[in-house]
Design a protein that fits this description.
alpha/beta; Aconitase, domain 4; 36% helix
Length: 410
């Protein structure tokens, strides 16, 4: 994990009350924490710090109380990493658990406010002013937790890997995932050139990667579940496509240099991402200026009550599900990352309950509960999915609403 950003300098013994004063602790609003971060030392800091900036500090950073809100305030203010000569142990533990990158250097790294600092968390190095300083290299298990965005996200991702690994074959047979019309529409809207290099993140069984590979020179598909990629590689051999490279990799920490690809795509995976904002920023980072980022996912209703009910059902069916977003929410995340939406195309498909539930295979009791909740939603369309029984065989089905968002990196 490599981080590069502008330095903000703080001294020794920065305590948690200075990082987030106690009068703000009664809220659970992360924006409040971010708006008052380090107010106890620099009241104007929150208004000056930018996403991706780096804090460089002295000894005993994060001393004082054990409040985890101190870490949350720094993280949600957009600080990419904290470099310190040493950390209070509880602050260090909280940072790992919450997913705030940090590196301990033993002595304060000599640099000035505004200097560009480069950090390699895995190697344990900090580069400032043309000199490299070696810090404490993080143990592998802690590094894995940090890379996954914290302890809760780490456990969720480990569960997702296991779940997708066991169901990789079922996903390859999904009618909606393999729909050729949908795949071709995505590629047509993206309008790739033959010379483009494409990255398909969370590629799964590689359906979109294969369609891009028929029109461009080079495609890389990445996914954090190796078993999904093994299925993709088998399909690749059957289709005789030799311009695709599949790699095990998490979208939230892509191992590619800045501006490596002309097109970056993601299809039907965004609702599984534990940190969607970070995922979008990573996709934007590896995309060239003037390149395109394509996001395709299912939609949840703009109605908050319907969206909550919808996501509750999805999480019951598949515990690796994080959240389906509304179209407005997806567009905002993309625009916040500096991307301009150039195409927004809705695409709806009918999905039979039996096929949909079989992909996740959650077990008999959960199947019955999900089916009951789906049927209960028919009156008043409580899900916004037009759940109904067909007129022929009386099978339960719903309309799965999706959106194709094609953006340009300016």
């Amino acid at each position: 994990m490599k981080i590069k950003g502008k330095a903000w300098i703080f001294g020794d013994d920065v305590d948690t009350d200075a990082i987030i004063p106690g009068k703000y602790l009664r809220t659970t609003d992360m924006q409040v924490f971010a708006d008052h971060v380090l107010e106890g030392i620099d009241p104007g800091f929150a208004g000056k710090v930018k996403r991706g900036d780096i804090i460089v500090a002295g000894m005993n950073f994060g001393c004082g109380s054990s409040r985890e809100q101190a870490v949350l305030a720094i993280k949600h203010a957009g600080v990419a990493c904290v470099v310190a000569a040493s950390f209070a142990r509880i602050f260090f533990r909280n940072a790992i658990n919450i997913g705030l990158p940090l590196i301990e250097t033993g002595t304060m790294v000599p640099c000035n406010e505004g200097d560009i600092v480069e950090i390699d968390i895995e190697a344990g190095t900090v580069t400032a002013g043309g000199f490299e300083y070696r810090g404490t290299k993080m143990p592998g298990f802690l590094f894995d937790i940090l890379m996954d965005g914290g302890l809760v996200a780490h456990r969720k991702k480990e569960s997702a890997k296991d779940r997708f690994g066991r169901r990789s074959g079922a996903y390859s047979k999904s009618s909606i995932l393999s729909d050729k019309d949908h795949l071709n529409l995505i590629v047509d809207l993206t309008a790739p050139m033959g010379s483009d290099k494409v990255l398909d993140v969370a590629t799964g069984n590689g359906f979109l990667a294969f369609e891009f590979a028929k029109r461009v020179s080079e495609v890389t598909g990445c996914d954090m579940t190796r078993d999904m990629l093994l299925v993709a590689e088998g399909i690749q051999r059957e289709q005789g496509l030799d311009n695709i490279d599949f790699r095990v990799m998490d979208v939230e920490s892509l191992g590619f240099e800045d501006e490596s690809f002309g097109i970056v795509s993601c299809r039907f995976a965004f609702h599984h991402f534990t940190d969607p904002g970070k995922a979008v920023l990573e996709m934007a980072r590896v995309c060239k200026r003037g390149g395109k980022i394509v996001l395709v996912d299912g939609l949840s209703s703009e109605d908050a009550a319907k969206s909550e009910y919808h996501n509750r059902i999805e999480q019951l069916r598949d515990p690796s599900h994080v959240r389906l977003y509304s179209k407005l929410e997806l567009v905002k995340m993309l625009e916040d990352a500096g991307l301009k939406v150039i195409h927004a195309r809705n695409w709806d498909a009918d999905f039979y309950f039996d096929e949909w539930i079989k992909i996740a295979d959650p077990g008999g009791e959960i199947v019955m509960e999900v089916r009951r909740m789906m049927i209960d939603s028919i009156e008043g369309d409580k899900l916004g999915l037009r759940v109904r029984f067909d007129d022929g065989e009386g099978r339960l089905l719903f309309t799965y609403s999706t959106v194709i968002l094609v953006t340009e990196k300016e």
